[in-house]
Known about the structure:
The structure holds 2 protein chains of 2 kinds. By secondary structure, chain A is of the alpha/beta class. Chain A folds into 2 domains: 208 residues, Periplasmic binding protein-like II (D-Maltodextrin-Binding Protein, domain 2), CATH 3.40.190.10; 96 residues, Periplasmic binding protein-like II (D-Maltodextrin-Binding Protein, domain 2, 3-Layer(aba) Sandwich), CATH 3.40.190.10. Chain A has 14 helices and 14 strands. In chain A, strand 9, helix 6 and strand 10 form a beta-alpha-beta unit. Chain A starts with a helix and ends in a 29-residue tail after the last helix. Chain B has a domain of 201 residues: MetI-like fold (Orthogonal Bundle), CATH 1.10.3720. The longest helix of chain B is centred in the N-terminal third of the chain and has 34 residues. Chain B is globular, with a radius of gyration of 28 Å. The model of chain B has no long low-confidence stretch (mean pLDDT 86). Chains A and B meet through helix 4, helix 5, strand 9, helix 6 and strand 10 of A and helix 1, helix 4 and helix 10 of B.
Amino acid sequence: xxxxxxxxxxxxxxxxxxxAAAASPTLExxxxxxxxxxxxxxxxxxxxxxxDDQGNWSGFxxxxxxxxxxxxxxxxxxxxxxxxxxxxxxxxxxxxxxDVLIRNTTWTLARDTALGLDFVGVNYYDGQGFMVPKALGxxxxxxxxxxxxxxxTGTTTERNLADYFRKHNMKYxxxxxxxxxxxxxAFQAGRCDVFTTDRSGLYAERTRFSNPDDWVILPEVISxxxxxxxxxxxDNEWGDIVRWVFYATLEAEEYGVTSGNVDELRANSDDPAxxxxxxxxxxxxxxxxxxxxxxxxxxxxxxxxxEIFERNxxxxxxxxxxxxxxxxxxxxxLQYAMPFR
Amino acid sequence: MAVNARPTRRRRAAHxxxxxxxxxxxxxxVLMAALLAGAVYLVHNTLLNLERLGVSTGFxxxxxxxxxxxxxxxxxxxxxxxxxxAFLVGLLNTFYVSIVGIVLATILGFIVGIARLSSxxxxxxxxxxxxxxxxxxPLLLQLIxxxxxxxxxxxxxxxxxxxxxxAYLNIRGLFLPKPVPEPGFAWTVYAxxxxxxxxxxxxxxARRRFEETGxxxxxxxxxLAILVLVPLAVFLLTGAPLSFEYPEVGRFRVSAGLVLLPExxxxxxxxxxxTAAFIAEIVRAGIEAVDxxxxxxxxxxxxxxxxxxxxxxxxxxxxxxIPPQTSQYLNLTKNSSLGVAIGYPDFFNVAxxxxxxTGQAVEVIAITMAVYLSLSLAISAFMNWYNxxxxxxxx
Lengths: 341, 395
């Protein structure tokens, strides 16, 4: 009796996998749930992912979660945010607890292959740096021989740090914390001379210090940290959706489409690139398994890449980060959308 | 091991399920088989799913270079060593903090437990307040207070607090003079070993004489004298072959010397103070479990309160104390994994880094569980052995 039940359950499970293989199983699940489960930074990273006292999330990474929801549902609010620590994030994605991970995560060979993950793009080109108290009087990371360094565990940071100090034949003492909040508290208390993480994180954390001007970020960038959204390996259709939602924000900036003028451009633009992007021409929505106006909804509700960047990280925000490498390729940066054709 | 009182000479005609023993054994076999099948299913399912997700599995990663550094290493280690070595470093750090914590918690716990029974009102109330406050505040919170509030407010290296004997205390840790043995120091070590052997033999002889003749011997004082004086005499005779490397205070940091990291100090303080509160209660319960008549009989024989405690009450109380004490030691060892919150590089902390660098979550968690399990079983085995030694011996 019990064996029959088990066998039946097994057969149903198999059948489920069989039918879902045709379309994207993740997209099907998302539609069924009615929201996108998006993994974000648990400890909150100003400018990238923060939550206010009403439980509303905002930030650069959060906006890309919203963009995916806008493309699927036409409603940017249909996101369930799952706060994850650096250690938990990949397991949460592998096990299907979240649909997409947008949590300042570095694209590396090992993660892309051995972890069963797929990186779909680079929404922020970052690099690891060092922050020191101004009073230390240090101008370059090469003066840090013998320093103690506070660092958060579960990141590529520890290894980069070891590599850098070894390469320059300097000694150091790593003090490794589970959460970045503790690492920063110890750094501020004077336990360490140096705090190290991605430079975006250094700028973000510095805004939370009581006297941001008393701390300097050293000029050295010791690693390449391309941060981007991650999906599970094997569901290529879902990967396509996240990838092209991201490209849509870039393409929109390149062709001057903003949340302010998108309605007018959709009605009146003669530019074929804009017409294709906004779904007036071609059937890109159908190819992706999305509504025809998916990119319009993304731009209308969330904005183009430039808008997202300026709103969360740009010179008008406490972070004051320049576009730099994250500028469009047309202005000397690295951000480049594959063509919408 | 149930003992079946009645010899099993049953009538053949009875069905086997009417035999309670057969039923019991069958039930156990079925249960074991179900458990095993469940375990096999879980492992198989995990492997299958990992395979489907394209996650690589296996323990091969253990032998590749770790590529990260650890602040406190009891064996030589740097970034070029393997992940297996990094695990070992973390394990030794867990051992280190657990053993120091267990020793300090036991001493403090005994003192507080006995203080709680003191006839002095103030001493008893202070001990009671300590126990009630400490054991009702979560350990994680206490560790954070020790680390960020107590040790976090120490001065920067430039303004180090100078302690006696050339030691310094600042936010980077406790810096002690580091003993550097010179040639000939080995003789002192041999003398110490010889002294320990002598004291053990002396204690045995004193005990036997006491049991035979009833004449007490001041074992403790004589033993201590042997332990201190013999190695000291040899040390001085060989020309005091030991020098100290003193810590030096620089502008940014203290260099040289022996350093105890603040993470370690906070862990030891937090773990031992917390566990001592529980041990104190166990000690109190153990002492109160000894019959009032034992005290009175000892007093009637003319023993002082201290002698009564030491010679009559505590030996009997230990039988009650040891089993729950074992649980506290196990708790302390497992609680040392909270070091991850304040940057102490214990096994769990190192495993976390390895987990993230390699992405081998299932393997790393399996190793972590296996290590904590064996650690706990080892402590259990030791304490069970000690318990048997201490158990009531009928003469």
